[in-house]
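Q: Hi! New to this. If I give you a protein sequence and the SMILES for flavin-adenine dinucleotide, can you show me the bound structure?
A: Yes, paste them in.
Q: Okay, here:
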Amino acid sequence: MIELDERDECPEDIVHTMCNPDQLGIQLLFVPEEYGGLGGSTFDVYLICEEMARIDLGLATSLFATFLGSDPITVGATPEQKKLWLSRIANEGVLFAYGATEPEAGSDLGSLKTTADRVMQDGKVVGYKINGSKQWISNGGIADLYTVLANTPSGPSWFVVEKGAKGFTHDKPENKHGIRLSNTAALSFVDTYVDADRLIGGAEGQGLLQAQAVFGYTRLMVAAFGLGAGWSALDRAIPYSTKRIQAGSPLSEKQGYTHKLIVPNVVRLEAGRAFIEETAERIDAGEGSLNTEGAIAKYLSTEAGNSAAEASIQALGGYGYTHEYMVEKIKRDVRITTIYEGTSEIMEMTISRDRWQLHLKTRGQHYHERAKQVELLHAAHPNVGADVAALALHALAEVMEKARAGRLTRYQHILLRLGELIAYAEAAATLARRAALMAEGRLNEKANDRFDAAALAAISRIFAREAALKVAQDGLRWVAGAGGVPDAEIPAFEVALNLQAVNRAQSGLIADMDYIADVLYNRVTKREELSALVGVER
Ligand SMILES: Cc1cc2nc3c(=O)[nH]c(=O)nc-3n(C[C@H](O)[C@H](O)[C@H](O)COP(=O)(O)OP(=O)(O)OC[C@H]3O[C@@H](n4cnc5c(N)ncnc54)[C@H](O)[C@@H]3O)c2cc1C
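A: Thanks. Here is the predicted structure of the protein with flavin-adenine dinucleotide bound:
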């Protein structure tokens, strides 16, 4: 992999092997059974995405592009179109590319300029002529088929364009910071003619809806990429630190090393995983596309993956900075996950806007209600940090209420910061729930079991402390900073946020971090395990 990365080369043979139904055929997982696929669940797809990202995020991206490219078809195509295109993915392993982004339309896809003009014959639409360009398209130079978003007279619509179509060209591959095994290229369309049956769904103007319909699912996939890449870096740093002797002992025995570079990253990655797993289960249970949950999972897991890879370079010191030790490649690769399929800032906005509506609809009670549910969980499982997650949720409700009263979301920065606080508070509750399920032996059998009940409970307690502190302190900071509380009322707001309880909840943090370090380095004593199960007294 490292040689291909250095040569900036997409190994097309490996990509085709991955998609060849007679060889690996990974794409079969996301093609429904009726079209010759395996019809894997969202949970299965998450598992595969994490594994692929552990190997190489560029190759994973290539497969993801076929998945994305086929998405508008799965969601919106006519039965005939589905049969034609999905069967070809399953049976022939054709590669797709997903052409949405344009030079001037990235996060704001609505401003796309590519056009698809009707071609009429005898008063009937017989085809379309596509004109425009697409930017940063994964598989752009190697795909067999392209799904392309273009403006028809009735609005944005998806079209399937075949490689080699007249007037369609792609540029040479981009010279990228990371995922250098993935082919990324710009596309150009000059009067590219497609027959009318290439309009996905047969009706114009459905494109943006079709794109949004599966965001929950596709963002979970990228979330899993962040998770896999982050763990892949840590799984290099952890063994390295047991062998590297400095100042007379291995780095793994130095608390200032493990508690800065390793443990917090493990905790944040596992918070992301908890959110991914819970959301995947809910999508599979038919709760809809869960776009906001997908956004939270993506936001947390990709930011965590990025930080974990960055910390892993530091953990390997000078070796980490060289190509040979891989962590710097992983860091370059994972960086894309906070950008594509919606940037972290767009995730913050998506999360915040959606939950803001819930806050308004419930007259500020939404997160207080959620907190009460988590308090019930605490009564049954006093060791999973649910009490502290509840503090985070209550504080969040107070912050949002002050933001409402002061009309603070007119400041875009406040709106986006709320997105971050929401993600942390919700993930703290989710992690506590999963730690409780693990303790009861009721976690889905496919769920990750790297950590046992005692360790997951400790991870959950650590994350809950971080979430509560972040929500209360940052919430106070931004609300006060935007003039939402007069100076004289800050002490009362601190009481409403329960800042004292949030501060008190930090006690026991180092003991829990010690425990997780011991778990990671296989040096847990029976006594330690017992006290971790019971939870650290506060
Ligand atoms: C390697 C790679 C592969 C890709 N693969 C594909 C693909 O296969 N298909 C495809 O269609 N696209 C693909 N993309 C495009 C990718 O999805 C976009 O780059 C991404 O959505 C961001 O758009 P942009 O680059 O135009 O950045 P912009 O939207 O211009 O954003 C730039 C910065 O501004 C911030 N920002 C944007 N809008 C706002 C706002 N309203 N308020 C506050 N901040 C804002 C963003 O968060 C970001 O930090 C790929 C990109 C790369 C780099």
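A: The chain has a mean pLDDT of 95. Let me know if you'd like me to explain how to read the tokens.
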